[in-house]
């Protein structure tokens, strides 16, 4: 009969160097012993209806991973094959450790998959927001640029030189906002592989003068 039980981790036997433990369960149920293992043995003896227990530690990578035990119907057992049983416990310890590692790897892999899925959803939501915001911003900017252009061209009457300079700066700022919105859309295009860079000659002096004028 196989059982999975919670071994008391503060047991003197588990903390000690002794690898195996042979216990007369009937005596353990009658004696009061400070070791928490005594209560564990009592419960195990009652649950399995045995009179003696043979316990050995299961280790892997120099760490305790569990305890393997045999319950016998006779008192004070005399087992001569302790060496064989301990060698068996070595194989069982390695197998148990591998199972625990496998379960842990599966849990971590599942958490990574769930996190990756959430990141993909967030990335998609970000792209959708950028696209929506960019199109919504372009609409009022188009109207601003259109009316400024009409005023600069004199469609509503003559414009003084100082007024024209100020209106031109406003128009240039609106145009710069259009470029910034385009850059926002380009971020999504870069990630999707649809962004294409078109190289062309640029007058750096004009770029610098425009920035200085804005400041």
Question: Notable features of this structure?
Answer:
single chain; 215 residues; mainly alpha; 3-stranded antiparallel beta sheet; 6 helices; rod-shaped
Can you walk through the features of this model?
With 215 residues, the protein is mainly α. Helix content is 62%, strand content 11%. The chain contains six helices and three strands; from the N terminus they run H-E-H-H-E-E-H-H-H. Strands 1-2-3 form a three-stranded antiparallel beta sheet. Strand 2 and strand 3 form a beta hairpin. Helix 4 runs antiparallel to helix 5. It is rod-shaped. The N and C termini lie far apart (84 Å). About 2% of the residues have low confidence.
Question: What does the secondary structure layout of this molecule look like, with pairings?
Answer:
Blueprint: H1 12-15, E1 20-24, H2 25-28, H3 37-48, E2 52-60, E3 63-72, H4 82-152, H5 161-192, H6 204-214
Antiparallel strand pairs: 1-2, 2-3
What would a concise description of this structure say?
This protein is mainly alpha-helical and 215 residues long. It has helices spanning 12-15, 25-28, 37-48, 82-152, 161-192, 204-214, and strands at residues 20-24, 52-60, 63-72.
Whole-number average pLDDT?
79
Low-confidence parts, pLDDT < 50 over ≥5 residues? 29-33
C-alpha Rg (nearest Å): 40 Å
The succession of helices and strands, N to C, reads: HEHHEEHHH
Biggest sheet descriptor: 3 strands, antiparallel
| Helix percentage range | 55-70%
Termini Cα gap:
84 Å
Strand order in the sheet with the most strands? 1-2-3
Into which percentage range does the β-strand content fall?
Answer: 5-15%
User: What's the multimeric state?
Assistant: single chain
Structural class: mainly alpha
Q: Count all strands and give the number.
A: 3
Shape: rod-shaped
Tally the helices: 6
